[in-house]
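> Could you send the Mannitol 2-dehydrogenase prediction when you get a chance?

Sure thing. Input:
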Amino acid sequence: MAPAVPISNGLALSDANLPSLPAIVSRPSYDRTKLRPGIVHIGLGNFHRAHQAWYIHRLMQQGLALDWAIIGASVREQDQIMRNSLISQDFLTTLVELSPQERSAEVIGSMIDYLPIETGNSALVRQIANDTTRIVSLTITEGGYFASAAHGGLDVDHPDLQHDIRNARAPRTVFGAIVAALSLRRRSGAGPLTVLSCDNLRGNGAIARQAVLSLAQLQDPDLADWIGEHCSFPNSMVDCIVPATGPDEIALAQGFGIEDPVPVTHENYRKWVIEDDFCAGRPDLEKVGVILTSEVHAYEAMKIRILNAGHQVLANVGELMSVHTIAECMAHPLISRFFNKIEHEEIVPHVDPVPGVTPTQYVGLIAQRFSNPEIRDTTRRVAFDGSSRHPEFILPIIRDALNRGGPIQGLALVEALWARMCAGIRDDGTAIEENDPDWRRLSEVARTSAHRPQAWLEQGQIYGNLVDDGAFKTAFCHWLQLIWSQGSAAALRAYLGPPEHQGQETAG
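Output:
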């Protein structure tokens, strides 16, 4: 247990210091020494701590789910800093909620350990194989699923997956670790478990299932059959805006009398929708507002197409025009009009309603959430890993629009802005630092596309057959040439037209 030592800007976060925190800070009311593990969460970062871990904490505050505590894990060496910080504070997290009207803080305690990050991932495999583990949940980002348009599923040619195929007992990847652990569970009689993806992918449970089964099939077909028959992979939708942590966020925690090097700030909104398909039990999540339903896909589509695609509409042009945060983009008269026009004219027509909310109403809610000036969510963070996010968030809408004869000019402009951003230079001449796992290759293609715009669309792993669609290709090439010759703002003005000609898109 970390010592109860006060430091300059407040109390060091620890179990021992919890009783001494300022009264305005909510804290665990349960005895953390009585918690028992039930969940291994892989990819433990800010979003998980503000969302899934918070829901489990709320159950624990009611005296429930005490055997569903979370053990964190990662297969990425760069997460060692986070692990060290959380170990030093007994795995507690400070959450600071930022609404436009007020700020509040609470300390959550639903996490009780963070496994060693090591070559071969033996500790992770052992913990998943332990019969106390009943759910393995994931926030490994869209790019962490090794999806390949060329393969129509798992990219089995990826070097890390090739390693796991040959070295099943010392895996490198998340899915290799899960398969290795399930093999042990099958032999030991520990039984199946639930793999719960919480990433922003349409059909995330089905994608996780395909990844696990595809890898298992290449290692042990009998194991793959057992997994397919007994394990469950529910689809889910998660929704909460959680910025990255920097000096400002640390200072916010200090303002509440807490010294926490890895606090989490978040908006005053959360939603979690999950298919009720858990083969080894689950916490009573419905008691803290989680929606358990067999109709997750409509919620997924609304959120991914309106919020996640909307983020990409803003982030790339914000980077190019040196607008630092999403809230500042929404306050920018040109960028906000751009956002609203695309949302209402080119995205909403391809989104179905969910119980109690129409797509148009959700756009209004998202506009309010994006405009919250207290949430300093940077355009750089939101634009990160566009090579995974655009194929998942933007391109499916473009395909639907082309199939239905709907407008795609604004979405083609979004793609052109991304291509221009990947060249690494803002409109004012300042440099954009690497911001994608595939940044060097993207930058090379982006510079080529300055003279031959179609080169960007020839990235088959991203655009597939969209390069062959004449309407989309013509629109994209037009916008990219205009951006390079006249700048991003000029392209936005050309798309928007005079303000008096805007109609529905100014609503919300």
